[in-house]
DNA sequence: GTAGGGTTAG
């Protein structure tokens, strides 16, 4: 029977990646009225019909990144009285964890919904909540979700390992890794990645070597994580290992996919092999915006600012949509190349022409752009005119500029103004004392340390903002 | 149907 609810459901499940088709099917489902739950005839199969269709639609829209639409579909689902089931929540919760889904995040109401519908015992549902809470920095809730599982499977354990890693608790991640009854390549990769995201790059590489010695077969994700660690470490051993991985991938005749390719470009860019990065970029059949961003950064960090900006022009011509990161990369290139006018023009056009709203990072780039070029007063004015309170990165850029341009009266003025502006800001105080210490003005450093105490700043981070 | 991967000044 053409266009029965069953046949449309099958189509959705079979071809969920074809955006236009999904939209057509969606329209057809609406026209046919299949989304309205029928409870009158009492047949259990038709009771769940709209639920299954909604589940498939939520999944399909999540699949091509339309997370907002997934969330909207859930709201519709409730208003149509189609009861969500255990299959509804994993996709829904994933949509809620996605940063593009907008705020406020509805994840917690989903938790309540899942409890109400009696699906919280489902291990798939629980695992997705573990990841959700981990993403939102609520490690306690993630643990609770995990601990209430009677016999967590390897996937649930992997999700919990990742939850620990993402929230900086590598000890617990390793403990769970040791204690779990079986491990797979995802377990290993999650730990490698955990060391990486906690900036423990040497240990990431060590753990990768351990994985190899245990005869675990790495997969693409493992290599991507490893390459990223090698890129950040940048010692000869790390560079050697990264090149070895590349060589292995070439010998295995594995086509460079977007993730691997982007990781390689980043690796070569950060370790100074610009030509290798360009080669990889040229070989890639499919490029995403991240790929272009990595290449732009590679060019700009190796002193080819003009080429970096040319590549940005090419990206636009090829119809790519620049991301937030793209603008950080191009604005940085402008700052390095002292292209003040062009940088300011780009900054103005980013929200106007590309719909990318500047974040604190972008303000930091412009502060850097002005400051490096010696426009310290303009940079200060710019910081004051920002729509949000400057954070340590913006102030770091400003002080970086002061460092380049020497100890002028203006610098002292800037310092004073900013100190008054953000006396409570522990990040700033650290920046200030670092800068002073750096300039061998230990008396001032001590002075600022005292101010930190007087200002009642509780926490002084154990890292320095200026490297 | 649940887990892990790439790009971001100073």
From TrEMBL:
InterPro entries: E_motif (IPR046848), PPR_At4g14850-like_plant (IPR046960), PPR_rpt (IPR002885), TPR-like_helical_dom_sf (IPR011990). Keywords: Repeat. GO terms for biological process: RNA modification. GO terms for molecular function: RNA binding. PROSITE patterns: PPR. It comes from the Eukaryota. PPR repeats lie at residues 50-84, 153-187, 288-322. Transmembrane segments: none annotated. Gene3D superfamilies: Tetratricopeptide repeat domain. NCBIfam families: PPR. This is Tetratricopeptide-like helical domain containing protein.
